Amino acid sequence: MVRPLRSAPHDDIDEADLEVGSEAHAAAGPTAVAVAMKRAVEQMGPVTTARTLLRLNQVEGFDCQGCAWPDPDPSHRHTAEFCENGAKAVTEEATKRRVEPSFFAEHSLASLEDRTDYWLGQQGRIVEPMVKRAGATHYEPIAWDDAFAMMGAHLRGLASPDEAVFYTSGKTSNEAAFAYQLFARAFGTNNLPDCSNMCHESTSVALAETIGIGKGSVSLHDVETAELIVVAGQNPGTNHPRMLSALEKAKRNGGRIVSVNPLREAGLVRFKNPQNPKGWLANGTELADLHLPVRINGDLALWQGLAAYLLEHDAIDHDFVATRTHGYDAWAEHIARLDWAEVERASGLSRAQIEELGAMLVASKATVFCWAMGITQHRNSVATIKEMVNVALAQGNIGKPGAGLCPVRGHSNVQGDRTMGIWERPKPAFLDALQAEFGFDPPREHGLDTVDAVKAMRDGRARFFFAMGGNFASAVSDTEVTEDALRRTDLTVHVSTKLNRSHVVTGREALILPVLGRSERDLTGGHEQRITVEDSMSAVHASKGPLAPAGPLLRSEVDIVCSLAEATFGAADGEGGAGGAGGPDIPWSEFRDDYTAIRRRIANVVPGCAAYDEKVDQPGGFVLPHPPRDSRDFPTTGDGAGKAIFSVCPLEVLEVPEGRLLLQTLRSHDQFNTTIYGLDDRYRGIKNGRRVVFVHPDDIRHLGWSDGDLVDLVSEWEDGSERTAPDFRVVAYDQPVGCAAAYYPETNPLIPLDSKAEGSNTPTSKSVVVRLEKPRGGRPGVTRPADADVEHGHKRATDPIQQS
Q: What's the half-sphere exposure (Cβ side, CA atoms, 13 Å) at 78?
């Protein structure tokens, strides 16, 4: 058996070992294949590598643990239907390294606290349930039955069901998600925060209010056949690499591509497709026809400038606007008063640059608008997305071939989890369906989202925290506050495959429950089970792992949820129900033994899922209904109900004081969310380290620093408080003057918990005001200067535009 790593990882080495080279000008190619195979063979061995990767994203295989980019039609899939980062994700899960009880006996919680997420993750798979008892310094083994009894006792001991928080990672299957939300609501709470609260919640809010459904409106075929694709605030080369194949097809079909991003990312410069000879032997395919280096938080101004250009050139689909939309006249009147000087100042772009894209929009008869976290994690994110929708509506680019809205979700089933009911603000119709199906009245009051869950734990209003996957402590903003909140709880529970920071930031008591991964065979109930997931484009399909489990004690997500329900509500009765202790009569044991039973209930409860189990039998699964896409019908409410809504969004400019920079947090190429695969970011020229801050050369000189200096990043908040992330190396990098970038989760301590998007509560991870300081030494922290006089922040212009 391969043992866990015992030595310190490379991210604990001296700063002098960090290497900075040139940024790349192409993505993928032979290097991507070589890196993926080297990592896979090192950790999985050659046989397991072949068995897993050749089944990844195949019809009879398993779904990638990484991003939610859709799979091609079954008849058009490659033998190797995966990307470099997908291979890394599989490697992380199917590694032969193991974390056994002896590891926890050797390592105290105090010693593990000083380890990075990278080091923790590289130790291997957790194979046995572990408990940290009150006052203990180490985790120790616990039997499954004792763990469930412990959780059930804690839950029954709460003064109110709302003292429990049930968090969900985006990797949770549809079956587990449905059972999980059912358990939480049967218990009596809507406290169901999830990772969507931290990433695409702004999208869900904006789209629900404007087109009536919080999901994108395109298919993969639409992307491949679009005349124009605008990719805003997104880096597909690192975060959704398989998207590059679709963009390449669009280019071959005559489409044009525009990149809107503060950084020029390698994946949108050129793509060396490893699936064809041109990607190996030639220069690949040039993707972006135009790159607009928008200032951080300047997207709202950009899209209003584009709207003004469309109106000026009467590039409006008047028939669509008249018959399918509401609010056009008020929007057009607002845009007509736009101040171009303010647009240029806010966006960092010239009017000529904006109008170059405007001319491309006018020329296109079918445009797809793509975006990701570069758009969704600002205070004005909801408004920005609404303005993108306005531009799409003005040209009728929703519900026609080759056109539409394409928010690209960052986790493999985060959209499916929401479809299955993982949401703190469920619609009454969904709760009514649950009541009709299961015979109990679900709670109707809205629950806690991620940010509010942290506040509730911090303030003592939530005492029980359960995480179905993920790395909550590292994923949430304001790290010190979040960790302190977790420590204030009575019990923290993490359903996990591998170690992460959240396991060492515990409540008074803590449990780690080892779970089966996507790549592993699930024989729960004595027979082979399958799960289902939903991708970014509303396609639902089955997933079934081929590998033997990492250990005999692993349980599935569904098993854990159903067993917890039985331990909480009481023993099952003769009909398979769990009605003891006041619990509703729900057949948890049947659900655990046969996931088909869950899918049949999904079919009765979830809109668009009739004959769910039968439909996922079809090769490639099925696509959920989407009225705006399918028939140009818009299930909106309120004024203009039944039509798409034009929104009037006042322009905002994020003012940054002299001597400060506007920081965006981002991923390296060697990570997925908070999972760190390695310490290199070859697309940005970084090797052997992560604590770097990318700054424009002019800003480095203006602020009195030099390329290569070591600095602390200090964020400033409107209440006068400051937060520090220490010891970052300054790296000169081309981007708009006044902007900076650094990797998360190392920079999450800089984002105040109260710095969040209006309307969605999403942390503002892409617009953090910081200054660079000489290193003070020590750990990240929060301070409040006695004489604080901070005068930065959003300035909302009056309508039409308030001059600065």
A: 11
140-141 sheet: strands from edge to edge: 140-141, 130-132, 509-514, 491-496, 464-468, 164-168
Answer whether 349's CB lies under 8 Å from 302's CB.
yes
| Residue 646 DSSP SS3 | coil
Q: Which residue has the tokens 């309508």?
A: 799
The two three-digit tokens of residue 398, written as one number: 């929703």
At residue 4 the predicted structure's pLDDT band, cuts being 50, 70 and 90, is very low
* Structure token pair of residue 504: 């060492």
Q: Long-range contacts for 583-591 (Cβ within 8 Å, ≥24 apart)? A: 583/186, 584/186, 584/438, 584/439, 584/440, 585/438, 585/439, 586/182, 586/186, 586/438, 588/179, 588/562, 588/563, 589/562, 591/179, 591/558, 591/562
Name the DSSP class of 554.
-
Q: What is the DSSP string of 600-634?
A: HHHHHHSTT-TTHHHHTTSTT-EE---HHHHHS--
Tokens for 340, please give them.
Answer: 């171009």
Q: How far is it between the farthest Cα atoms of the chain? A: 75
- The predicted-structure confidence for 576-621, as pLDDT tens digits, reads as follows 333 334 478 899 999 999 999 999 999 999 999 999 999 999 999 9
For residue 367 the two structure tokens come to 């445009």
**Residues with Cβ < 8 Å from 279, sequence gap 6 or more?**
28, 29, 30, 271, 272, 273
Domains in the chain (CATH in brackets) are: 115-196+413-624 (3.40.50.740), 201-408 (3.40.228.10), 655-796 (2.40.40.20)
| Distances in whole angstroms, Cα of residue 116 to Cα of each of 226, 238, 499, 676 | 43, 22, 11, 10
* Region of 447 on the Ramachandran plot (φ > 0 left; ψ -120 to 50 alpha; else beta): beta
Residue 282 has pLDDT above 90, yes or no: no
**pLDDT-above-90 percentage for the chain:** 84
Hey, what are 264's tokens?
């020029």
- The residues, ordered by sequence, that sit 6+ positions from 477 with a Cβ below 8 Å of its Cβ are 198, 451, 748, 751, 752, 753, 755, 763, 764, 765
Contact between 310 and 361 (Cβ < 8 Å): yes
Residue 292, both tokens? 């607009």
CB atoms within 10 A of CB 319: 9
Q: Which two tokens stand for residue 756?
A: 């969040």
Structure token digits, residue 165: 């928080």
| pLDDT tens readout for residues 394-438 | 999 999 999 999 999 888 899 999 999 999 999 999 999 999 999
121 Cβ neighbours under 8 A, 6+ residues apart:
92, 498, 499, 500, 675, 676
Question: Is the preceding omega at residue 800 within 30 degrees of 0, hence cis?
Answer: yes
pLDDT at res. 16 = 64
- In this structure, are residues 74 and 619 in contact, taking their beta carbons and an 8 Å threshold? yes
- Residue 796, pLDDT > 70, answer no
Closest CA relative to residue 433, chosen from 419, 446, 447:
419
Distance CA 25, CA 269 (A): 6
Percentage above 70 pLDDT, the chain: 93
Contacts of 336 (CB under 8 A, 6+ apart): 308, 311
The rounded distance, in Å, linking the Cα atoms of 397 and 404 is 5
Q: What does the DSSP 8-state code read for residue 586?
A: -
The answer to whether 10 and 679 have CB atoms below 8 angstroms apart is yes
**Of 283, 262, 243, 370, whose CA–CA distance to 24 is shortest?**
283
> In Å, how far are 88, 448, 729 from 288, measured between CA atoms?
26, 41, 30
For the chain, what is the mean pLDDT? 92
Upper half-sphere CA count for residue 483 (Cβ side, 13 Å): 15
Which residue, chain included where needed, has tokens 């083994």? 141
- Quote the pTM value: 0.94
